[in-house]
User: What shape does this take?
Amino acid sequence: MRNFLLPRFLSIIFLFISCNDKIVNVENDDFNILFIMSDDLNCDLGSYGHKQVISPNIDKLAKNGFLFYNAHNQFPLCGPSRTSLMTGMYSNQTKHTLLDVDVRQTIPNVVTLGQRFKQRGYTSVRIGKIFHYGNPGTIGTSGAQDDISTWTYTINPYGRDKEEEYKIKTLKERQYGGTLSWLAAEGKDEEQTDGIGATEAIEQLDKFSKNGNKFFLAVGMYRPHTPFVAPKKYFDMYNQNEMEIPYNGSTENYLNTIPVPAQRSVRWKQDQIKLNLKENHKLAQEIKEAYYATTTFVDAQIGRILKKLKKTGLDKNTIVVFTSDHGYHLGEHGHWQKQTLFEKSTRVPLIFSGPGIPRGVSSKSPVELIDIYPTLTDLTKIETPSHVVGKSLVPIFRDNDFKVRESALTRWRASQHNKVFEGYSIKTSRYRITKWGDNGEDGFELYDHSNDPEEMFNLANNINYKIILDSLQLHLDFRIKDSKKKPPGLGPQFQERRLRKEVNYTPGDLHSIDGKRIYIKPADE
Assistant: This one.
């Protein structure tokens, strides 16, 4: 077992390899960046060993690139996670724990990832959702949380999924973004918002191939975030009856084995608790099928973009990154959606591909989404801003067993019943430890992934794991303390203030002057 009693300070060593057939040798480091981000996508993908999900294009990207098995977000909620990724900092440093917060409100002088490339002469383009904004409420707009300093220009697709939103099935009437909702849609891929986004990306790649401009092209998919909408053909790829729904986290006996904040994290969505009941098994299967169908739809749009990248020849000097903002529960621990400190919520897909990146290689080293920023500036030989605390993953490209850190850190914070619950969790190569409360007063969790990858057996009170628990606690405390330090060069920091939450207007509905819905367009109209 590794010694966690003292923090391990790692020195990064650059190795120049001239005879490794897994490395693409290139003479030019003047690379473009194609950054593709999905929304609410977990690691249920073929390339991550899932035998049911159909994801040939993401799998091909992994085959031609480098896959990280043990990558984790820093806050399992869209807004805070995306802000951390785009700034290379932890949520304690960005001051973001809520959805509707403007990055410049809390850290006005920060240099974001796209902004840094823009500073170095790149055309920085956003298509779709990169920073947080309401999904599906503000699809088609830039929303209130986008950052104009990051982009040269932006494109906001708006598709049939918004126009026919009234047809969507949902657990709560006219609730979509935070509620399980789904639709097997009519029409073609290119009519959906993400299909339009892919078409826009194709047009941008065509333009860049002709004008020769360096680019940082960020394509943000809206799916598989709720509502799970995809053309019917993707639903037809799956057998709904084969959807397995885990009920191992639905009993009171299980809940009593974990701390109260952990219990509440997997029971905060009251409308979804009924899916834990066996009489609603078919409904749960229908929803899970919709999530997988939407995942396959997203995969197809990514395939369209990558096909164009290759056709233009831009693949020879473009680094591709694919990831998601956080994971997603599909009934595990009796929970659906995100906002937990379990593996299904913290773990994300992360794939790099392109010149200088090993092909068909993977690593189980613990990495974080904030590592994307310094990795891309490292690969392009652009100076990284001093406020970025993420670590370059280039040493892992050279040696897939190398570790830039011993653990990946995730924080979760929420107010429930007039009490603020805050937890921190780290995932090492083998263990997960979670601490609730400043001093652990709200409880601990410990999971051994060597025999419990589903994290169902809390070992925090198991005497046989006491030495491991004590050692991991010290390491976790060091990680937490380090994540709270103000980075050099950041400038002023201010506490977050939630902006007005956008109201979702479903096309076809009518509202009174005070915003009350007075007419609901029927689904069969």
User: Anything to note?
Assistant: The longest strand covers residues 215-224.
